[in-house]
Amino acid sequence: MSGDLITAVAMSEPAVGSDLSGISTKAVRDGNDYVINGQKTFITNGINADLIFLAVKTDPKAILAHKGISMILIEGDTPGF
Ligand SMILES: Cc1cc2nc3c(=O)[nH]c(=O)nc-3n(C[C@H](O)[C@H](O)[C@H](O)COP(=O)(O)OP(=O)(O)OC[C@H]3O[C@@H](n4cnc5c(N)ncnc54)[C@H](O)[C@@H]3O)c2cc1C
């Protein structure tokens, strides 16, 4: 609220809009970290954001497509972002 941080909500992908059950960006646990791979598009403030609320698949084996999806907070200066 103070305006010190710019945030973004990153859900849409090149092949996924309204139906978020189809996202393919994945977050895979690696020790204390998550390794995240994928693409997002149309993200308001995406290139300016300090903090991004990122929709990812954390359980690609979930039988129902809309399960196994998580929101991960990622900082804009994270290596590889
Ligand atoms: C200016 C702008 C800013 C944006 N900012 C963000 C952002 O910050 N973060 C982010 O994650 N995304 C963002 N988006 C993406 C936006 O959320 C998507 O455009 C939206 O989810 C729609 O997806 P789509 O364009 O792929 O359309 P589609 O999902 O392909 O839908 C196409 C059309 O079909 C309709 N439709 C879809 N499903 C159904 C259904 N089940 N029943 C009936 N009708 C249906 C839709 O209403 C639409 O008219 C932004 C888009 C724009 C234009």
Short description:
By secondary structure, the protein is mainly β. 0% of the residues lie in helices and 35% in strands. It is globular, with a radius of gyration of 13 Å.
Give an overview of the whole structure.
- The protein is an all-beta fold.
- It has a single domain, classed as Butyryl-CoA Dehydrogenase, subunit A, domain 2 (Beta Barrel), CATH 2.40.110.
- It is built from no helices and 5 strands.
- Bound molecules: flavin-adenine dinucleotide.
- Residues 8-12, 17-18, 42-44 line the site of flavin-adenine dinucleotide.
Number of domains: 1
Structural class of the helix and strand makeup?
mainly beta
The CATH first-level class comes to Mainly Beta
Task: Give the N-terminus to C-terminus distance in angstroms.
Answer: 24 Å
- The CATH homologous superfamily is termed Butyryl-CoA Dehydrogenase, subunit A, domain 2
Largest sheet geometry:
3 strands, mixed
Task: Please give the CATH architecture.
Answer: Beta Barrel
| Overall shape | globular
Strand elements, count = 5
> What is the helical fraction, as a range of percent?
under 10%
Number of distinct helices: 0
Report the C-alpha radius of gyration, rounded.
Answer: 13 Å
Tell me the CATH topology. Answer: Butyryl-CoA Dehydrogenase, subunit A, domain 2
Spell out the helices and strands N to C: EEEEE
| Ligand kinds | flavin-adenine dinucleotide
Weakly predicted, low-confidence segments: none
Mean pLDDT: 94
For the biggest β-sheet, the strand order reads 1-4-5
Strand content: 25-35%
